[in-house]
Write a structure and sequence with these properties.
The chain has a 6-stranded mixed beta sheet, with helices on one face. The chain is of the alpha/beta class and 792 residues long. The N terminus is likely disordered. The protein has 3 domains: 198 residues, 3-Layer(aba) Sandwich (Rossmann fold); 238 residues, Dimethylsulfoxide Reductase, domain 2, CATH 3.40.228.10; 126 residues, Barwin-like endoglucanases (Beta Barrel), CATH 2.40.40.20. Helix 12 packs parallel to helix 17 and helix 15 crosses helix 16. It is globular. The protein starts with a helix and ends with a strand. The structure holds ligand MGD (2 copies), iron/sulfur cluster (SF4) and molybdenum atom.
Length: 792
């Protein structure tokens, strides 16, 4: 099979074409139920499956929000088709997810003619994208030699493994195995903070003592009102969300969606859409709280029993007067009551809408305010994330069935595998993910104030960098133009290794570019997001094409050249690692129902049919024995820990503070439009960008409101120039009322395509986004940027 594969695995070579079409033609009249791998697959209507076809339930291991059961139809060593599980296979109690449009297009990703085929080393200047083919032996020798040289010269803290989320949906990846290898040979400089939801994770413990934890969605079956706050689950999937929300909708739950964009979630679920100016969420929240409290709609008994800092009578020791929530809302210090009329010019939400929203939320019992991660990928993200916890608290929606405690955090009862054994990292200092460009440029500038932990200063710049399954050297990192200036300087980072399936805008900056297999060409276990609690086998379906290899495979060779192969691999091949991880998971969960690895290969997935899980239920039911993990043991509306930081952007109450580059910034005079991005249905971040089927699903365009377009003489489809001091992007305009006036939007993840003048023609928002670090979390603010748009 391998031989044939080398000839043309991409569905375009003549040999493959003949082979596949013959197989299909031969079996047009067959219906072969036994072809299903395990008896669970259902052939689609009008089935024309070839006789030797296996229909394998499997999943990708992308970081896409789902972990869907796709059915790969495999015949003659080729995946000929992808379907998904049928309606009658859904378990109504805990359904497995069904493939989205991206999943149904996976073949066009795997069999794409542009896939990287051979290891290559850079020949031009770094970033030029000129490479020449080399052998795997030369590639692994280059890595081993550079690792030895750089480690001897600069120490292990000069070694860095970059963001690479495309394999994070699986238990085993090159990304984790390179960390294992580096730990075995001295360690590496680690980063913390998740660019996905790190601002939420850092902020919500100040309310509850632990990071935001959602409940399981089955607890919402009788909730009459759900507010989706910057949460676009129709596109982003988030585990089982759509299944539950659609069921609730049918049962009469009312949905309100708060988003500057009329998202697919608005069109598929919402009874009411409330657009607001990005980064002003806290002003809306403050005004909602003002209405709730001034109209006496707050849950007094709940507040009294469980919380700290609501009014002056419930403040912690050592804080002067007028710092409580009520004092702030009533303007005790600044003389400004935080009324809906105060919030209207800030948010652009009409005062009457705010008033009604507040009343609806406070008087519907229970109600769930569920916040997505879009609003917290802002410069004010921590405040927004904490703001929603305070609204939930004053309305008594925490720890009760049908309520919701915190911005979306996933269900704490969700189960994970153990992952591969990871030796300790001897390098103790860590940087925030936002510090890496600085650490590559001039490490002496990375200070504890900016996010360095575990040391007062760094011992070295980043000198060798591994980027596995990430497009984060350029494309996905904020402020690309500033970033690539550092990357292009070959005296800074001395050696960059990238592993991908495509020559992405980031891969162009590699010194060594390695072609990995796709998820269809290796074994793994898929792990779900959100409240979808199951594990699923991701089977090796087809042979690796050309000279592609799994990262683990070539890392073994590097380990051998470093003299640590036995310790690194423990003698296991990839499948043996998966088996070992599965068995270790069975032991650690002590779950007798978890099948053996052998049984898993028949069963395919394991559902954790756990009881509905309500976040903080114990703390509310029995606070005596289950105090919150905060210093006071209570829900902290006012956080003394935040107060003591005495930082204007870290208010103890999480109230509205205008964001840098928000609509109130002086820069808005020069750049009057706020640009936001969203995660669209046709790719996971930038993964599958080149997939031709998915490019047909949605074209990259700038969403602009007719009012803003008209002012600028822009008509539908006109080419427009989006610009600010950081960069310029030139793409067509989509003039649409789906975006509110004053705001423009680009789908995230489009490939950066700079011309000779540095003007992007791909519609990549990160030529315009800012690398400003959030105050508390030291995290990202990809979403907060001001721009101007002109007809090109
Ligand atoms: N289809 C698809 N699904 C995905 C991904 C993908 O790329 N494509 N990526 C996956 C990943 S890695 C992640 S981290 C998650 C991310 O999931 P999210 O972070 O929740 O997704 P986003 O689309 O960034 O943001 C959600 C919504 O927030 C809105 N928004 C932006 N700014 C503001 C604001 O200031 N206030 C309010 N109220 N709303 C605002 C956006 O318009 C958007 O509709 O999704 C995952 N799922
Ligand atoms: N403007 C803006 N920027 C953002 C965001 C935003 O909302 N707006 N979101 C941020 C968020 S939440 C995230 S998570 C990051 C995501 O940023 P990244 O982690 O960089 O994720 P992707 O862009 O999907 O890039 C993954 C790469 O891995 C490759 N790949 C896929 N499968 C495999 C495999 O099996 N092996 C190997 N070796 N490679 C593979 C894909 O081809 C792709 O090039 O982006 C961040 N950047
Ligand atoms: S891309 Fe994600 S959501 Fe879509 S089918 Fe695959 S696993 Fe499911
Ligand atoms: Mo993410």
């Amino acid at each position: 099979m391998t031989e044939e594969y080398k000839d043309g695995p991409f569905g375009i070579s003549r040999r493959h074409f003949v082979k596949a079409s013959t197989a299909l033609a031969a079996t047009t009249f067959f219906y072969n139920p036994s072809a299903r791998a395990d008896g669970t697959g259902t052939p689609a209507t009008g089935d024309t499956s070839p006789a030797d076809e296996r229909v394998v339930p499997t999943c990708s291991t992308f970081d896409c929000g789902g972990k869907c059961d796709i059915r790969a139809h495999v015949a003659g060593g080729v995946v000929t088709r992808i379907t998904t599980l049928a309606d009658d296979e859904l378990d109504p109690e805990m359904p497995i997810m069904r493939a989205c449009v991206r999943g149904r297009g996976y073949r066009k990703f795997v069999y794409h003619p542009d896939r990287l085929k051979y290891p290559m080393k850079r020949v031009g200047k770094r970033g030029e994208g000129k490479f020449e083919r080399i052998s795997w032996d030369e590639a692994t020798t280059l890595i081993a030699d550079n690792l030895k040289r750089i480690t001897a010269k600069y120490g292990p803290a000069s070694r860095y493994v970059h963001v690479g989320t495309a394999v994070s949906g699986g238990t085993f990846s090159g990304d984790s195995m390179v960390r294992r290898l580096l730990n075995l040979t001295g360690g590496y400089l680690q980063y913390y903070h998740s660019v996905s939801m790190g601002n939420t994770a850092a902020a919500t413990p100040y309310t509850y003592g632990v990071a935001a934890s959602g409940s399981s969605l089955d607890t919402l079956s009788e909730t009459p009102l759900v507010i989706l706050w910057g949460h676009n689950t129709t596109e982003t999937i988030f585990g089982h969300s759509n299944h539950y929300y659609q069921k609730m909708k049918q049962n009469g739950t009312r949905f309100i969606v708060i988003d500057p964009r009329y998202s697919d979630t608005v069109s598929s679920l919402a009874d009411q859409w409330i657009p607001l100016r990005p980064s002003t969420d806290n002003a809306l929240m403050d005004a909602m709280m003002y209405v709730i409290i001034s109209e006496n709609l707050h849950d007094k008994a709940f507040i009294e029993r469980y919380t700290l800092g609501f009014d002056e009578a419930s403040m912690p020791e050592g804080v002067p007067a007028n710092e409580s929530l009520v004092a702030y809302l009533m303007g005790a210090k600044d003389g400004i009551k935080k009324t809906p009329e105060w919030a209207e010019p800030i948010t652009h939400v009409p005062a009457q809408t705010i008033r009604q929203l507040a009343r609806d939320y406070a008087t519907t019992k229970p109600a769930a305010l569920i916040q997505g991660w879009g609003p917290q990928r802002h410069n004010c993200g921590e405040r927004t994330a904490r703001g929603s916890t305070i609204l939930a608290t004053i309305t008594g929606n925490v720890g009760v069935k049908g309520g919701w405690a915190a911005g979306y955090g996933g269900d704490a009862s969700r189960k994970f595998t153990t992952g591969p054994e990871m030796p300790d990292n001897p390098v103790k200092e860590k940087i925030s993910v936002m510090n890496w460009v600085q650490a590559a440029d001039d490490a002496s500038k990375v200070t504890p104030q900016d996010g360095l932990t575990g040391a007062e200063s760094l011992t070295s710049n980043i000198r060798i960098l591994f980027s596995h399954a990430g497009n984060y050297l350029a494309n996905q990192n904020p402020d690309i133009n500033q970033t690539v200036r550092v990357l292009e300087d070959e005296s800074k980072i001395e050696f960059i290794v990238a592993s991908d399936l495509f020559l992405t805008p980031s891969a162009k900056y590699a010194d060594l570019l390695l072609p990995e297999t796709s998820f269809m060409e290796r074994w793994n276990i898929g792990e779900t997001w959100g409240t979808a609690s199951y594990l699923m086998l991701s089977e090796k379906l087809i042979d690796a094409p050309f000279e592609t290899r799994t990262d683990y495979d070539w890392l073994r060779e590097v380990a051998a050249k470093l003299g640590v192969e036995p310790q690194f691999s423990l003698g296991r091949d990839e499948k043996q690692w998966i088996e070992q991880i599965w068995e270790a998971t069975r032991k650690s969960m002590s779950d007798e129902n978890l099948p053996t690895f052998e049984a898993l290969q028949v069963q395919r997935h394991h559902l954790f049919k756990s009881k509905p899980n309500i976040a903080f239920e114990d703390n509310i039911r029995d606070p005596q024995n289950h105090p919150f993990a905060t210093p006071s043991g209570k829900i902290e509306i006012f956080s003394k820990r935040l107060y003591d930081m005495q930082h204007p952007e870290i208010p103890a109450l999480s109230h509205y503070v205008p964001a840098h580059e928000g609509p109130e910034d002086a820069l808005a005079e020069k750049y009057p439009l706020q640009l936001i991005t969203w995660k669209g249905k046709n790719r996971a971040n930038s993964t599958q960008y080149a997939n031709p089927w998915l490019q047909e699903v949605q074209t990259q365009k700038l969403w602009i409101n007719p009012l803003d377009a008209e002012k600028r003489g822009i008509a539908q489809g006109d080419s427009v120039r989006i610009h600010n001091d950081r960069g310029v992007s030139l793409i067509p305009a989509e003039v649409t009322q789906r975006i509110m006036p004053g705001v423009v939007a680009l789908q995230a993840g489009a490939w950066w395509q700079p011309d000779a003048n540095g003007v992007d023609h791909g519609g990549c928002a990160n030529v315009l986004s800012s690398s400003r670090i959030t105050a508390l979390a030291k995290g990202n603010s990809h979403q907060t940027m001001l721009v101007e748009v002109a007809k090109a």
